[in-house]
């Protein structure tokens, strides 16, 4: 067997589809199928079974998958160790950021990455917590900044910082609030709320906080996208509960106002998530250090409440 065959097999097994794997790898599907078949012939085992939804590993395939991940990881570590001998870390790091934080962190993170790791490649994706954690599990992302992530198998969580949530409303003409006046959480239950659908972490947190007051949110619309939520708030459709950073670089930022929540205040715990299925490479470890330093500089330390977790 060769490394390319192992890489192709791992990608098909993780994505559950020859078509998706071929697209991700940048190869045509017949070539991918031939390499997988050659690997099966060499090992004298069926490794993947096609079904109506794609492809899943056989029992033999599951055994090989565990070994193949380790082999590919060790090869990557060896390449990075050799790179370090000549004075540089290399490789690709794929980082997932929530949309609100991407507006604040993407540029400074890119600058810091290029300074510290000039021979490495950075990929930044935006997404909601649930989708990004799924991408982390499947190997599409290496590091994820997530809001209030739930404990998950094979995912390690490290606290980065705590961020207050705010009620985002359309700014009323002629009404100046400097600083914006706080809004009791109880009042939120009377307002038309534009909020992501379950199981979004923010949605769960808001519903739980209102339930403690014996209340339920008045959901006007469910939208799984921060930019779309802000557009609808600016259009007067309803209000939203978001991080104040969501307004940074928003298309209609001057038409919106973020008012702090009170009685009780709500805070999002921002965590750095990484997968235990693939131990971090040296380059990924360096990128994680950059993220922690940047967040500490901009947002301060997290509270003692959330602790690092490995489910």
From TrEMBL:
Query: Which positions fall inside the HTH lysR-type domain?
Result: 1-58
User: Molecular function (GO) terms listed?
Assistant: DNA binding; DNA-binding transcription factor activity
**InterPro entries named among the record's database cross-references:** LysR_HTH_N, LysR_subst-bd, WH-like_DNA-bd_sf, WH_DNA-bd_sf
| UniProt entry tagged with the keyword DNA-binding | yes
List this protein's GO terms for biological process: regulation of DNA-templated transcription initiation
Question: Which domain of life does the UniProt lineage start with?
Answer: Bacteria
Which keywords does this Swiss-Prot/TrEMBL entry list? Answer: Activator, DNA-binding, Transcription, Transcription regulation
Record flagged with keyword DNA-binding:
yes
Member of which family? Belongs to the LysR transcriptional regulatory family.
Q: What name has this protein been given in UniProt?
A: HTH-type transcriptional regulator CynR
